[in-house]
Amino acid sequence: MTSNRGVAYIGQGKVEVQNIPYPKLEDPRGRRIDHGVILKVVSTNICGSDQHMVRGRTTAEEGLILGHEITGEVIEAGKDVEMLKIGDLVSVPFNVACGRCRTCKEQHTGVCLTVNPSRAGGAYGYVDMGGWVGGQAEFVMVPYADFNLLRFPDKDQAMSKIRDLTCLSDILPTGYHGAVTAGVGPGSTVYVAGAGPVGLAAAASARLLGAAVVIIGDVNPVRLEHPKRLGYETVDLSLDVSLADQITQILGEPEVDSAVDAVGFEARGHGHAGAQEEAPATVLNSLMEVTRAAGRIGIPGLYVTDDPGAADSAARKGALSVRFGLGWAKSHSFFTGQTPVMKYNRALMQAILWDRIKIAETVGVEVISLDEAPKGYAEFDSGAPKKIVIDPHGMLA
User: Fold this and answer.
1) What terms describe the molecular function in GO for this protein (predicted)?
2) For the chain, domain boundaries
3) Are 57 and 307 in contact (CB under 8 A)?
4) Predicted confidence band at 385 (pLDDT cuts at 50, 70, 90)?
5) CATH topology of domain 5-170+340-391
6) What residue ranges in the chain does DSSP mark as E strands?
7) What's the mean pLDDT in 147-170?
8) How far, in Å, are 96, 115, 305 from residue 124 at the CA level?
């Protein structure tokens, strides 16, 4: 096989399906790596993080092949691969990790020290993340395969649940990480900011962890209709009613035990007027307001060091007007950073296989072809309440 196609970022607001090189067992600097495998991509998802790049809100270069949420079948393996065989169906954590450095050994695979020459942490198809080619393609290469890949124990069973299992590469572990780091447990009251796929995954994770009440907030009322049907409490942040007042209407008090920021740096203000404009610190400040004293706030939502499309010069450098004094006064704990997917994905795989969580239903998985990817990006960017999954080879039909 020598042909391959992938989704390329070609300019602000534009992606295109292009012919791209068939992957080799080489790292981005051209060095042979016999610890890698080539995957036939079974499913690959469009993520909100991809949209940040496509909107021109990062320093991503044109021509970047997108895609860090990947599930695939092993079709070629380097000579140093010992634990995987041809035909295995695997989930790919979006973190590229070596398994050998200090942070990897401490399970902080989101900040691996060796896979990216410019900073800690690597990812497929993402700006400043080491140059690893993205997986919104027909074929992709994965390094350190024995360490990185999660093999599904029964291929037929996995394919029967592939719409759920495709979420293991990022959004389900990310939502779960947000809930875990926010201290969610049995009987917790939880507020999740953002009704996109990660927010919904965080809400589902909070239920899995035993939360008593899960409240989801968004400035887009349309996005709240689906979680409301699933039995979650919701707050409409486009209304001129404060978040604390809306929480009081649900809980009888204006505070929650735990909170999760599933929005990130492109957040909008609250209220009818505020929802029309970006206010990147809004979510963080609102979470400090409604989280109880000594509570915890999980922040899996993406924040960046460079945002060329930001409204002000400070935000362009990732500097936000956060009310840190409020968080300090309330003795809050904050947990940030890329999710270390491998810390959670095996347990979450079991939860899916044994029907403890139905994540595809929760996040609204919709399957499209590779050729439909540009349309999928446009729909997702418009705020469509769905999780778009690309099926490059027609294996999910």
Assistant:
1) formaldehyde dehydrogenase (NAD+) activity; zinc ion binding
2) 5-170+340-391, 172-335
3) yes
4) confident
5) Quinone Oxidoreductase; Chain A, domain 1 (3.90.180)
6) 5-11, 14-19, 37-45, 69-77, 89-92, 95-96, 122-123, 139-142, 150-151, 189-193, 213-218, 233-236, 256-261, 291-298, 333-335, 365-369, 387-391
7) 98
8) 7, 11, 19
Closest to 324 in 3D by CA, of 288, 298, 354, 353: 288
Residue 259 and residue 277: Cα distance in Å, rounded?
Answer: 23
pLDDT tens figures, 192-243: 999 999 999 999 999 999 999 999 999 999 999 999 999 999 999 999 999 9
| CA–CA separation, 256 and 59 (whole Å) | 37
Cβ 242 vs Cβ 228: under 8 Å: no
State CA 312 to chain mean position distance: 26
Determine the 3-state secondary structure of 234 from DSSP.
strand
Place of tokens 């900073």: 119
Report the CATH superfamily, name and number, of domain 172-335: NAD(P)-binding Rossmann-like Domain (3.40.50.720)
- Tens-digit pLDDT profile for residues 120-158: 999 999 999 999 999 999 999 999 999 999 999 999 999
Residue 1 clears pLDDT 80, i.e. is over it: no
Q: Is the entire prediction scored with pTM above 0.70?
A: yes
